[in-house]
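stuck on whats below:

***
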Amino acid sequence: MRNHFLDRLTVTATALLLASGVAIAAASGQSGYSAPQHTTGFPGLVGGDNQAAVDASLQAGPELERDRSPKWLLDDQRKLDRALAALGPQKAGQVDAYVVVVGLDSDPIFGREVREAGKVLSRRYGAVGHTIVLAGTDGNGPSTLPNGSPRNLAVALARVAELMDKKQDVLVLYTAGHGAKVGLAYHDADDGFGIIPPARMARMFDELGIQNRLLILSACFSGIFVPTLANENTALFTAASADRTSFGCQSDKDWTFYGDAMINHALRQPVPLAKAGEDARALVAQWEGMGASMGIIPSQPQIAIGAKVDTWLKPLEARMPHTATPMVGRPAITIFDQGK
């Protein structure tokens, strides 16, 4: 019996990158620590030949934790509890940003990228005490952060919704990981698997009443979120169009192409959000052009900024730092140095 879920998530490694879906190797950090590795593909989270049932299951956002150690589960819950408890209340009389950053894959590149993204976004939007980062290892040892899983993301969003003033405050969400044509892929070594489809993310926002949103989704095929999540109160940026992969997600690197362009370059600058998005898109196009002869097809990052976004964005940007911060890590385009 053919497993349609596996069919839809099967991907191949190229000479330059690990594209959508599942990474198959993890790099060792300088300490000699070996990160958890993906040695198998996605298990059958749904099965059978009824495609309608398969599609319905995927839209519900399936998640599977497989043979987790009870001690690991308790430790992760305690990490999450501490992180949630550290989130402070909103400040009366001003528009506050709550930053939630999640690395949905245990490949160390995503652990490194989201840790830095949390710092950049927290500084830019004055969200110290209002920031939570969920991620696996950065390659140097077991993660000290709550795991970047769909469950932990949902719980973090629920806590933010309790603390924020939903009429004026803003959720800033950055996700990094692999993607599939059905949604963001969660893959934690051989233990955690799942999908966050657009419909599931929209339902979470609707249930929690989170209306003002800055969403930056860094994954292959992430443009599939635009039709579902774009609205007048949302600023949405995706690393790729609905039918394109994004690039640079090799385990031994510090940045994906889009993460480097959007976080490490554009959002470090004291420029308006719309310009940052366009600058990042242009930079990605430039880098992808360098690899055109190697078969790189442009990822086509998407931008959708709603008509009422300025009501919350202008107050945030009025308090934005006026100086840039230096870029960190190895540039994403060092993937072109392979073999030299």
